Amino acid sequence: MNLDRRRIAVALAGFITFLNLYSPQALLPLLARELGASARDVSLTVSATTFAIALIAPFTGTVADVLGRKRVIITAMAALAAPIVLAALAEGLDGLVLWRFVQGLLLPPIFAVTIAYVGEELPVAEATSVTGIYLSASSFGGFAGRFLTGTLAAPIGWRGTFLVLAAITLAAALGVGLLLPKEQRFERSAGLAASSRQMLRHLRNPLLLVTYAVGFSVLFTFIASFTYVSFHLAAPPYGLSPFGLGAIFVTYLTGVVTTLFTGHGVARFGRRSLVIGLVAFWAAGMALTLLPSLPAIVLGLAICAGSGFVCQAVATGFVAVTAREGRSSAVGLYVTCYYIGGSVGGVLPGFAWERWGWPGVVALVLAMLALIAAFVAMFWPSRASPRR
């Protein structure tokens, strides 16, 4: 019964994080028009959030290693509603970007600490399975945030959609508070200084360093693809509205399904072989988006989402079971690298977009996918799993 409650609570935490994180993506062309901003400037509503996550994530881990997991998760979820409301009330792009940055500061205490909770409270095989559930809920949240904002933009405006997100966030905080069991295997760090030393020791672990590089590359690819495809599909000959752009993110639902089989895939193929195969499939999906056909683009994005979310689930689970101490800080460092990748992926492809359009963005993404495959092929173990 406790395991069922834990799975629901973990799923809620993943859902609410990604419901909010990428919610502006379906609105980017609309925000650019209403706020008089360029595609690269308005993409800061996403990049500011990912940059804030990158800044705060490792420190979140050290604090959680001292204060405990559940307390940090619930406090952050409840506090998250405030900057969402303030973003809805922002007068211009600068204010919107500021409050999106503040939202980013509150997200790592939810998802990084949730992953650490799972890795600590459950056996390795079960932790991988529950991490898959978390990532599945995250991918559904990513879809729901974009679809909801795209759907509600016409009747209530982008400001109204943010207020709806704030209400959902508060409801989820209550649900997690009621359902998530208090941690049983948590070993409190001796203090912030001791936890910080643990974090620095993670930087001497070659497997963790390589996995952090994989995380950087994964989110770079996701943000680059799903941010600039909105501008690609809003332009002729497609001319999609905010609702249409929100509906495109139904492709994220492939991640809901595929991540549920993460544990089975790792057990059958091993982490290294599974990720290399998925990267090849991911690259094929990106190539499909170059075709001048909306169905082909949607299929390509679905392949990208399904492949990418499993890669992320495998890498995240690998960090949780590889770290021998200070798991919150180990996951926090991974999250920092992951979201630095997301921040760069929101801005750097903008230069390729302005010069070469969507094909330039695709070329940059394919290069990053090649780096993921190289990192994993060269450094990850073939079949052996780290043991606690």
CATH level 4 superfamily: MFS general substrate transporter like domains
Give the name of the CATH architecture.
Up-down Bundle
CATH class: Mainly Alpha
Helical content band: over 70%
The domain tally reads: 1
Q: What name is given to the CATH topology?
A: Growth Hormone, Chain: A
Low-pLDDT parts are 384-388
Amount of beta strand: under 5%
H/E element order: HHHHHHHHHHHHHHHHH
Major β-sheet profile: none
Structure commentary:
- α5 (69-88) packs across α8, α7 crosses α15 and α7 crosses α16.
- By secondary structure, this protein is an all-alpha fold.
- The relative contact order is 0.17.
- The protein has helices spanning 2-21, 28-35, 39-42, 44-67, 69-88, 93-106, 108-121, 124-179, 192-202, 206-234, 242-248, 253-258, 262-269, 271-288, 294-322, 327-356, 358-379.
- The protein is built from 17 helices and no strands.
- It has one domain: Growth Hormone, Chain: A (Up-down Bundle).
Keywords:
single chain, 388 residues, mainly alpha, Growth Hormone, Chain: A, disordered C terminus
